[in-house]
Design a protein that fits this description.
It comes from Cyprinus carpio. By secondary structure, the chain is an alpha+beta fold. It is elongated.
Length: 483
Amino acid sequence: NCDSETTNKKTLDSEVEEIRKVSGESGQLWCQIWDANKLLKLFLKDYIMVVGTDMLTQKVPYLGGKTELEFFVEGLRFPDKDFDGLITINLSLLEPCGKGFPETPVFTDKVVFHISPWIMTPNTLKPVEVYVCSTDDNHSFLKSIRNLVEKCGYKLKICYEYMNRGDRWMQDELEFGYIDSPHHQFPVVLDSPRDGDLQDFPYESILGPDFGYVTRHALNEEVSSLDSFGNLEVSPPVTVNGKSYPLGRIIIGVAFPTGRNMTQVVQDFLWAQKVQAPIALYSDWLVVGHVDEFMTFVPAPDRKKFRLLLASPDAGYKVFKSLQNNGHGNAEMFSGLPEAISVNEILSDKKLQAGNRYVQNCIDWNRDVLKKELGLDDEDIIDLPILFQVLEEKKGARAVAYYPDMVNMIVLGDQLGIPKPFGPKVNGRCALETEVRSLLEPLGLKCTFIDDFAPYHKLLGEVHCGSNVLREASPFKWWNLEL
């Protein structure tokens, strides 16, 4: 269970694991490592390298008597398309037979290791620290996030302008995960190939003692918006047709059959970890193209211990039609903003309705995939009232959220930080907020609506896009899975 691709260049305190104690009377210990090209290093106790990337076999003098030699191993790479994560080390104790004669083996052994996979953490795990950017126009948003995080009792790490250089999309730049072994465990950040102005933040500010770093570079592929990690999520633990996924399943968005896709090098890396078998959804119908624009997971006290939340234009139109039927057709969406529009005007917009029928079809396709791949029933899914609008682009029509996309929320235990939708008000209360509260608060969840309209929504992102959460590791140990 070797630590992999996480060597901290800022400290000499290497993460190592004892692998074997060999005792004998005298002679040489012959170490041979198979399939080791740039995969691991084998050390003696004082971190003297025995075998590694440049030396695959080595003789180690043995001191005789009851002396013990302790060996340690450090992993250098995660499992990937060209590496299944397995390492074999052969050890032989050789006894001299006299001058001019080769040594003869006294003892041989073989040790097989599996490099620890990189493991993602679902929304149902306990938060540790929240990450968000400070920009010249998000002070009110930052204050709301700070208040929410402090109320929850978690840590807040702010990436200031000198580091983010105006790039506010913390979720898109990185994804937090961890590695685990019987002797040690620590978080590892996966750095996206998007490489915006936040590109230096994961390496310069997160990598440190007991905090690893890994990335994948798309050398021969075009990087698209789908390579940002708002397009990388993970489900809570599920059981599907008798097969258990105790660490959940990774979820990414792709194109069917053609269009923008997550780069193959990142997909290969995710599939190679094996412990969270990925699911591919259709997300290329969105301008930004991220799965977090139409889905998320929240904890729940019953059933599977979570709910899947899906954006639903049908649910949105149901709210607006109910308002109209109850005499609130003149109530305004975006009241007080230049974008203000009445319920009647929204319901009379045929182009908007046609676009939302298309969007609902796309989401329904993904709904069916998620039900099948996660073993969900309709009772495990909650539809949030969200409308979209379809924009004409050079490469075809794609959708964006019509008002702040409430499914794009931050989940901090039972506290939810939800984009404020600026819906029509009835008796002084936002009808959309009231509807969402009625759906989520019976689960014991607490809703805080955060104004992200100007600094995020207008730039085609929301609360989740602009934040990130480091969470505790799962109590389940990956090596108990059959890989």
